[in-house]
Amino acid sequence: MSVAGPGFPLSGVLERIGEYPFVRLDEAKRRVAARGVELIDFGVGDPREETAPFIRRALADGILPTMEYPKAVGMAPLREAIAAWVARRFGVTLDPDREVVPTLGSKEAVFSLAQVVVDPPSGRDLVITTEPGYPVPARGALVAGGRTRALPLVEAHGFLPDLDAVQPSEWNRTAIFWVNYPNNPTGVVAPLDFYERLTERAAHFGFLIASDEAYSELGLDPASPVPSALQVRDRSRVCVINTLSKRSSMTGYRSGFIAGPPALIDAHKRFRPTVGTAPQEFVQRAAIAAWNDEQHVREAVDRYRAKRALLAGVLERKGLRIVGSDAAMYLWLAVPEGHTSEGFATDLLERGGLVLAPGSFLGPSGEGYVRMALVPTIDDCRRAADRLEELL
């Protein structure tokens, strides 16, 4: 018996992009929890740190009796706060009116960038991404009608993409080259000279560099701040996307920004009113408060550092190898010999209720590793350390 279709067309792109891999992880968690196993979830990078009280107060104070639709370009005070933060943090001067647009977190900005930049009729239809990594840049490219190529991030190459692996014919079709450092999932920080080498390629072949810097403020070494792609000598082909989700534990607020050359920002200002707006005004007012303060960020990083020390001690004592993991909220672990990444993660989940993300969920080059997101509370991390003592 044939199964009837919906009676109307559906985009074939949905079939091409497939199921979001973490849906499988959620199903496994539900199955184990149904047996009465208490889970400690290191699977997804959703901070469970408390959002600072002063940010919550700014949000509440921003709720007025009546509120208009937020403008797609965002509030001028928010753009100014973002530009001021970039100047303090990276020493880069941005024009808040011509080089910054607030976004609904970073995910929608990452997804939609290809719709602004990719241009198949001109031959600029290729979006280069890296793997293992965040799948949204490639998915956005496919929905925009582009093609994708994923460069592997391998331990032998310092988890940096091999630029020499891209052929001139591919560079000539490239519209966007995506980078993400500190990297999800490896926790590696890219040196500034890597960005300089990439900008030289961009200048020669005429493509846009898009740098997802969601984890830029979670560097573990206060003496060595994480660099930004904005710090290159020539940033005329560089855009950066950042967010308060990780920096300020504000994932539910959905507030970030895209910064880039005026022509790109102007294109966004023309594109964004068609598909959405900036965050609600009360969220923007909370974001202004967050970008203007660094103390809450330092306190959060101290907590991540403490969690890392607590868990890394057990893992290394038990013979697991921690690779990368120089920044961000992740530990990138090489799985023991004889295990697959999904098999090892499943074993920890089934026997101990510990949820880790298999590296293979994040791309083929993630096989052989698992990702541990240090998002549970410090008390839960202590309990997880005790479980690891027994499980490993």
What does this structure look like?
The structure is a single chain. The protein is of the alpha/beta class. It folds into two domains: 19-50 and 296-391, Aspartate Aminotransferase, domain 1, CATH 3.90.1150.10; 54-292, Type I PLP-dependent aspartate aminotransferase-like (Major domain) (Aspartate Aminotransferase, domain 2, 3-Layer(aba) Sandwich). 40% of the residues lie in helices and 14% in strands. It is built from 14 helices and 13 strands. The protein has helices at 13-17, 22-33, 53-61, 76-90, 107-117, 136-143, 168-171, 192-205, 244-247, 262-275, 281-291, 295-317, 341-352, 378-391, and strands at residues 40-41, 100-103, 126-131, 147-152, 174-179, 208-212, 238-243, 256-259, 321-323, 330-334, 354-355, 357-358, 369-373. A seven-stranded mixed sheet has the order 2-8-7-6-5-3-4, with helices on both faces. Strands 9-10-13-12 form a four-stranded antiparallel sheet, with helices on one face. Helix 3 packs antiparallel against helix 11, helix 4 (76-90) runs parallel beside helix 11 and helix 5 (107-117) runs parallel beside helix 6. The radius of gyration is 21 Å and the shape is globular. The protein starts with 12 loop residues before the first helix and ends with a helix.
Number of strands: 13
Give the helix tally.
14
Helical fraction: 25-40%
| Biggest β-sheet strands, sense, barrel | 7 strands, mixed
Give the averaged pLDDT, no decimals: 94
What order do the strands of the largest sheet run in, or round the barrel if closed? 2-8-7-6-5-3-4
Beta-strand portion reads: 5-15%
Flag low-confidence runs.
Answer: none
Can you tell me the number of structural domains?
2
CATH architecture of the largest domain: 3-Layer(aba) Sandwich
Rg (C-alpha, Å) = 21 Å
Could you tell me how far the N terminus lies from the C terminus, measured between alpha carbons in angstroms? 50 Å
Provide the succession of SSEs.
Answer: HHEHHEHEHEHEHEEHEHHHEEHEEEH
Supply the helix-strand structural class: alpha/beta
CATH class category label of the largest domain: Alpha Beta
And the CATH topology of the largest domain? Answer: Aspartate Aminotransferase, domain 2
Shape: globular
CATH superfamily of the largest domain: Type I PLP-dependent aspartate aminotransferase-like (Major domain)
